[in-house]
Specification:
The protein has 115 residues and is of the alpha+beta class. It contains 3 helices and 4 strands. Strands 1-2 form a two-stranded antiparallel sheet. Helix 1 packs across helix 2. The longest helix is centred in the N-terminal third of the chain and has 13 residues. The radius of gyration is 17 Å and the shape is globular. The chain starts with 11 loop residues before the first helix and ends in a 26-residue tail after the last helix.
Length: 115
């Protein structure tokens, strides 16, 4: 069974599995799934990351100053519900496009002028 002290916490493995399931059902934006390979000669190559890689990058951060900061205090171990929401909304996972900031200056299609 679960070794978590809090019933609302999810284990590292559960988070990785949830992200993998979102990925396999096409619920993550394509940009968020791209990770660098070790091949940089003659140019940097990329591939689709796994659920565990995306979870790790969201939790710990990646890329130094030009990359992304981690969204959880602990890069390993169980996550709280708030941390899980932060992981889903991070640029690294970006479930359902939640990482994109909506601009208030845009007019939506529902704001049409009908007389």
């Amino acid at each position: 069974e679960s070794t978590n002290t809090n019933n609302n916490d999810a284990s590292k493995e559960q988070v990785e599995e949830m992200i993998q399931n979102l990925q396999s059902t096409c619920q993550l934006v394509p940009d968020a799934q791209i990770v660098e390979t070790n091949s940089k000669v003659p140019y940097q190559t990329f591939r689709v990351g796994t659920g565990s890689e995306l979870a790790r990058r969201a939790r710990e951060g990646y890329g130094g100053k030009k990359g992304s900061q981690g969204v959880t205090r602990d890069g390993d171990g169980p996550v709280t519900l708030e941390d899980f929401h932060a992981i889903l909304k991070s640029r690294t996972v970006c479930a359902w496009g939640e990482c994109y900031i909506k601009k208030s200056s845009r007019t939506s299609t529902s704001e049409c002028y009908i007389k």
